[in-house]
């Protein structure tokens, strides 16, 4: 077996995307508008977007929480997975990003399913208590706050809630003992929490795709969240 190279894994990513995801005008326009607005190109790759979509469907999700909206690309994937009365609550710290996302989400035809909350997630999350548990939580915001977001995922979920944390590989830096970057430290803290906190049962996968070398963690909330 040949060792992976950027050229090889990009070719595989393009092949898998073309075979399993295909073309989608609304999603492509969301990316284009995000780029035109100068937002960072840190949205999930198409294969990962469909992965989130399928996870939500497998979980039978009706209520989804997304921490980190950006331009709404992953939000559209999640909203499309929900029944007509389903709801995605997505949190975005930057009002300009939220405006771009709102336009793309509405144009994709899922606007009635999406509630965008603008503000810092650590301030918005407490306002969601008492509104019913979320069935899936997608964490894709600043890595320094991952433990805060995971704690709220547990508080706002229920036993069986799916929790997904993006970008846990950090291009290999997560396993580099010499790395003291704040994003790496935050990622490690989140992973250690997933491994040690009895509210979570988790695993993680490395990824090589259009966004480079990274990883994704997936967890289920356990019965400990009810105690």
Walkthrough of the structure:
Helices cover 40% and strands 20% of the residues. The chain is an alpha/beta fold and 227 residues long. It has a single domain, classed as Rossmann fold. The chain has a 7-stranded mixed sheet, with helices on both faces. A hairpin with a 2-residue loop joins strand 6 and strand 7 (212-221). Helix 2 (25-36) runs antiparallel to helix 5 and helix 3 (46-58) packs parallel to helix 4 (73-80). The longest helix has 15 residues, at 6-20. It is globular. The N and C termini lie far apart (48 Å).
Instruction: Characterize the main sheet.
Output: 7 strands, mixed
- Number of individual domains: 1
Helix-strand makeup class: alpha/beta
Spans where pLDDT lies below 50 across 5 or more residues: none
Q: What is the count of helical runs? A: 8
Task: Give a nutshell description of this structure.
This protein is α/β, with parallel strands linked by helices and 227 residues long. It has eight helices and seven strands, in the order αααβαβαβαβαβαββ. 40% of the residues lie in helices and 20% in strands.
